Give the backbone structure.
Amino acid sequence: MTDLPKYMRALVIDRPGAADELHLADVPLPVPVLDELLVRVVAAGVNPIDAKTRAGGGVSAAITGYPVILGNDFSGVVVRAPYAAFPLQPGDAVYGMARVPRTGGTYAEYVAVSALSVARKPARLSHTEAAALPVAALTAWGMVVDMAEAAPGQRMLIHAGSGGVGHLAVQFAASLGVHVTATGSTGSLEFLRELGAAEVIDYSTTRFEDVVHDLDAVIDLIGNVHDATGSRSMGVLRAGGILVNAPTGSWPTMQADAAAAGIRSTGYKVSADARALDRISALMDSGAVRVHIDTVFDLTDGAAAHRAVEGGHTRGKVVLRVSD
């Protein structure tokens, strides 16, 4: 790879631990193979799975050696394409999702990613905005569109509607004609209405099961980590309705409980899918959906970014600024 450096700056960990384990290091540039593109990273999104993996949970069991570069979300510019006729070529602005730890992470100046994991960046978004999207947007899309089969007239409850995944799930559902009810904190209710929620519920003052019932779907981004949110959600679904749960480890008996209650249920794990990203890009460029950035940190402040995500009270997404 002529004309490129042999080493790059990256935010790494040498072992599992607290946020302060994240530190800058010079590491070898990744070498793309087969269908992979080499992308110069401008910005990288920070997700809860990153913090969980850093702390020894998440996908850390699949780590085979250290140091490790974390981060799945990226937006940047192609510097190497897999072949001459590939639709994305050097200089093209792209965004997508890495697969840590199967590949190197995006908290780095360069990342090598499969062609199946990268799409052209939405034209109306900055790199910072685009970097906030892939994991959260693909998770929201998979839960709302693929699993719950969102359609006009459907009635859907979305828990944690102002979070990174939730604020996109609310918009995807509303854009498809779904009647959305979203739960959130007192301070997030107007934000949820702006996103397209037809009804909002302040979880600090109202039990959602007291005010909604006979729903077609529940998008559960909390599970039973807090106040048995997942178990309580079963009672607001109609017979045959579906509960889609993202924090799958929070509720080991979910499927058995749902079957006993006469409803359908499934966990969901995000897939890196360029075709879905293209559909999401179209919604972004049309203005039908927007991404909300809570905070942008420099790569040198990665530990602070992780602490912000772990605090659990961010609105929208946290992003790392990697390069110009």
Observations:
- The chain has a mean pLDDT of 96.
- DSSP finds nine helices and 16 strands in the chain.
- The domain at 7-121+292-321 is CATH 3.90.180.10 (Quinone Oxidoreductase; Chain A, domain 1).
- The chain has two domains: 7-121+292-321, 136-267.
